[in-house]
């Protein structure tokens, strides 16, 4: 079984659901049109299928290796990375001034889905570069942008994000790495960072580390953190590489999955570093690019889910057991048994929902930068902010769930490593954890993103969902309509309830107790909304005779699958949202018997 | 972090929820009383904690090994097995005539939870012996019961169940292994079996294989399968071991988890075998013991879930990040953050629900054998049949989900193998697959167990749930009552709908499309019922001043946690139950674009 990039589905999601063509109307993407979209997805898909997918299982088996203060990428990965860089894939959405192609971020996200699906461990390397590029682009000095950015955009160098310390994970305010001025404008960086993805490797000549640390006079806590840049090899004035900088990996983690992605413990021992942005504003600088990284991780969830789905579907079409209730065939493909068909259909529906949520977040991010007026940019920024934690958490939870179902479809073979399904189950498990755990995403949603504009962004989404509900009356009747209507009402109730509890100083624990269920509710219902819009678009294309009718009919059925199997959760999410902090407080140590 | 057997919770579940004391009233267990219950659980717990738990991670790392046609157990496992056998643990519920202790199966199940939790790979070895013992006890000849049973009950020999072939997994009717009469009452067994758990090892002198195969004149399909017994070493008339029999492992699988449990490919090459039970009734004979094996697997789900929960709870009490909204403490244990507390509380609630479902299934099985009248035995048999697929599937799905949440609670550390949480996530994944996949369980529930008595067993459960609902009015008001009421109504609606569709010849696909959601609904609601009964019992003990008040209050809160976070799913399950087969049929190859 090989990976097949879902080019047609990706193009459909971008154009029919996420609204990428609205971007063209801004005039900010002169090089973008529908032909470019298809060409980019085709080429990315082909590269992912032919170069990256074949390295996935060997990379899992061999892993990246550490010895004597250096990391060696898994066999074949350095060469694949060279091809990736040569293809210009790192620069898809980077500014032309830095040598990028200045295409929409949303298109880049779609292209990267195929990379993550083909080889999640590989995809992390350019994904972290993109995050570093984004940080430098937003906060770097002119010198930094001139000296480093083009070589990161070209893929000649990679980037790494260095935040976590042993005592400072979700609570970055607790970090203790220090940066002392050297008197020449540079700083001397000291400390240990953990979980540094692709923090060291042999695939490029240089690696740019973006590191959070404290200046000597910095206040305690989150307001005393600054952002620094440290090159693995010092860069001379003429751009050539000089001495090795004073930092190195001291080990890599032995992990559940993504074995070919080295997760480094990095030691900085007076490393030469440059300040990026303003002193003591490092955390804020980091967060400006965190949105992009988070939706990127959401896309990883989509990619690994689609890979697991494809693998399971191929098996279900091939494996024959029992008599089909539909065809009467003895020794029928298990695909023709309703329970297997149901599992695969719900997997597919969730994948398309998650994909559309992530790509819509990408379009919102592009619009937030490029829409015509400040009001429109603010509107889209609000949409991006609201959708980002949902895109990250809901999609990565779906990734784990779907990878688990992928194993299940295979029966006993799914538990055997050489089948491949188990790797997806292992790899998928990291995505709900990094770039802010999904619990942190939920707290970010209810604690900040929802209320920062008084709920305006959420209310705008609710209003748009109601408009779609009206349109849906032309396509369905009965249950598929009722379920969406009930689900929208649940979102409305929950949103108002949380805004109300948030306004009450005594309501903080209630809001936090509701966080997870509220995020899941939003994901479930917004996902349904995306599929509903897809169904409406499919209907329009069918009417216009534009596209493969059976496949377009599939989009119409897919919403119904989702409505029957997912939208119904809305009422249970509502129950959990209202459970209140006091109930959880009662579940203390003594109640649990510890 | 070491494992602590939840002796108090197990005893509570057996006595306050599953109703084990009703068994004593049958007079069938003269050696059983409350003191014996506590002594057995204490001793089993201690053995699991001290002998089995320390071998869990080393066993994962080293695994069982295969070389030159023989399997070697992971280091320390053979010795641990000898201690297990010497402790008499295999014979807890076996008949006294075979050297067993003739205690209730339900108590044995509870004791085995601690074995599975401590070391799931180890637990499979005696669990498969129990299944083989059960099959021999029910269908063996007097000779077989005399010659083999006592040595299996004592643990001197282990048993293996040999069903699956490459082309015959869920569809055992497709198996092709053959058994030819030798003319002396024995048979010559030929064929290949896969996924044979502990099919070979070096922990005992002999292994008894229970093998499904076809007689030469057997009809095709499931009605031509017979059950055979083949000893690894032939047993002479005086009971001593003779020649090596003509079967051997030809390899073991490289699996996602339970590395210390050898999963063998077995080759039988004219092996000497004995018929067990009647010719061509092998599948039925196998199924008489399948109920017991399935609830045993359910208990594995409970065990691995509790292990993952304990591991995550210990981490949450230890790991300090951020300020608690409850205590105001900076650098608070993450246990004092509502979202972490919620996660752990829901994990705990599901574990106790699953445990009570499995133990209630065990009590029903005991009552089905030992209740006073044929009517009562039939009633309990119906209860056992109904609960068994739910106990197996719901508990093992919970095992996977809770093990995944256990990883999540650990954040980045959860993804690092040496933390241990990842092993539970890997190990847990097999339980929804073997002993009939959870999809097969769901089909068994709606296709057979629900309707075999015209729905009488399901209706009896519904009536009892309504009685509990009435009692609950004395303990709670508002939401915790309403949620249970709504959930019971959903079970009632769904049950009647499925019985109705099942009565319609055109309804077969509708029933199968509903199977998974119906099983999940039943598990969710019966689990809530169990916790509600636990809460009522806790209240009674509180009133009587009998037991640790904080812990008993915890049982009362736990039902409320479950009602808010799980019972609400009932309405969404109902939506999925009604989706119908036609909708799934529309999701064909073309619709999916393959």
From TrEMBL, chains A, B:
<dbReference type="GO" id="GO:0003995">
    <property type="term" value="F:acyl-CoA dehydrogenase activity"/>
</dbReference>
<feature type="domain" description="Acyl-CoA oxidase/dehydrogenase middle">
    <location>
        <begin position="160"/>
        <end position="269"/>
    </location>
</feature>
<dbReference type="InterPro" id="IPR025878">
    <property type="entry name" value="Acyl-CoA_dh-like_C_dom"/>
</dbReference>
<dbReference type="InterPro" id="IPR052166">
    <property type="entry name" value="Diverse_Acyl-CoA_DH"/>
</dbReference>
<dbReference type="InterPro" id="IPR013786">
    <property type="entry name" value="AcylCoA_DH/ox_N"/>
</dbReference>
<comment type="function">
    <text>Involved in the assimilation of dimethylsulphoniopropionate (DMSP), an important compound in the fixation of carbon in marine phytoplankton, by mediating the conversion of 3-(methylthio)propanoyl-CoA (MMPA-CoA) to 3-(methylthio)acryloyl-CoA (MTA-CoA).</text>
</comment>
<dbReference type="Pfam" id="PF00441">
    <property type="entry name" value="Acyl-CoA_dh_1"/>
</dbReference>
<keyword id="KW-0285">Flavoprotein</keyword>
<dbReference type="Pfam" id="PF02770">
    <property type="entry name" value="Acyl-CoA_dh_M"/>
</dbReference>
<dbReference type="InterPro" id="IPR006089">
    <property type="entry name" value="Acyl-CoA_DH_CS"/>
</dbReference>
<dbReference type="InterPro" id="IPR037069">
    <property type="entry name" value="AcylCoA_DH/ox_N_sf"/>
</dbReference>
<protein>
    <recommendedName>
        <fullName>3-methylmercaptopropionyl-CoA dehydrogenase</fullName>
        <ecNumber>1.3.99.41</ecNumber>
    </recommendedName>
</protein>
<dbReference type="Pfam" id="PF12806">
    <property type="entry name" value="Acyl-CoA_dh_C"/>
</dbReference>
<dbReference type="InterPro" id="IPR006091">
    <property type="entry name" value="Acyl-CoA_Oxase/DH_mid-dom"/>
</dbReference>
<feature type="domain" description="Acetyl-CoA dehydrogenase-like C-terminal">
    <location>
        <begin position="462"/>
        <end position="584"/>
    </location>
</feature>
<feature type="domain" description="Acyl-CoA dehydrogenase/oxidase N-terminal">
    <location>
        <begin position="41"/>
        <end position="156"/>
    </location>
</feature>
<feature type="domain" description="Acyl-CoA dehydrogenase/oxidase C-terminal">
    <location>
        <begin position="280"/>
        <end position="445"/>
    </location>
</feature>
<dbReference type="InterPro" id="IPR009075">
    <property type="entry name" value="AcylCo_DH/oxidase_C"/>
</dbReference>
<dbReference type="InterPro" id="IPR009100">
    <property type="entry name" value="AcylCoA_DH/oxidase_NM_dom_sf"/>
</dbReference>
<dbReference type="InterPro" id="IPR046373">
    <property type="entry name" value="Acyl-CoA_Oxase/DH_mid-dom_sf"/>
</dbReference>
<comment type="similarity">
    <text>Belongs to the acyl-CoA dehydrogenase family.</text>
</comment>
<keyword id="KW-0274">FAD</keyword>
<dbReference type="InterPro" id="IPR036250">
    <property type="entry name" value="AcylCo_DH-like_C"/>
</dbReference>
<keyword id="KW-0560">Oxidoreductase</keyword>
<dbReference type="Pfam" id="PF02771">
    <property type="entry name" value="Acyl-CoA_dh_N"/>
</dbReference>
<dbReference type="GO" id="GO:0050660">
    <property type="term" value="F:flavin adenine dinucleotide binding"/>
</dbReference>
